[in-house]
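Example record used in the benchmark description.
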Amino acid sequence: MASFRSNTGSRYSRRLPALALGLGLATAALGTASPATAQNPTAAPTHTSTAAAYTGSSESSGNKAFYDAVLKSVAERQAAHPSLKVVTVYYNASSAPSFRSQISSSASIWNSSVSNVKLQATSGTGDFAYYEGNDSRGSYASTNGHGRGYIFLDYAQNQQYDSVRVAAHETGHVLGLPDHYSGPCSELMSGGGPGTSCTNRYPNATERARVNQLWVNGLAKALAQVSKAG
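Model output (structure tokens):
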């Protein structure tokens, strides 16, 4: 699990047990969106294999597992529609209603930053999903062990850190980027490393180039594997 936390205080920690989430109504507000407005948000998948959190020590295997799960899902859809020119990754945010604005902003940031892959909301089955609630591990990106990925957004952590940065950071794992907590605030994937005062929400030039490269080369390899399997 790779999470979003600071070097002082709690970091985005990494643990692998099944999730035990308290998804009751939260009383504290998150910007203009209060978790109390969420109507019984759906619990995140209970079988967590690997995860990448916003703060804490990074785990490259967890980062890669999440990216690979999303890539496989996208490749299967692309193989069925070879004429599609734009690689689109679909996400479902219906289980994170308190963070609707932050998730939308995160998608817009990434869509304006990279050219080889686009994020698009869906009300159906997506390539990954967002969930919300209370978790001592904070916010994180994870695979569910069944070929799908999801992002969990923690109420308390999103009050402490810039909420759009948290969402954009975790979404960076969807696109293949690992954590780099020792990096400066200008690096989106430094997560909570620079501390709560960091509000940069945008990937830097190196991060943008890496995502574009991954989705050209990685998708080509994934499509070849899907073709062989078919």
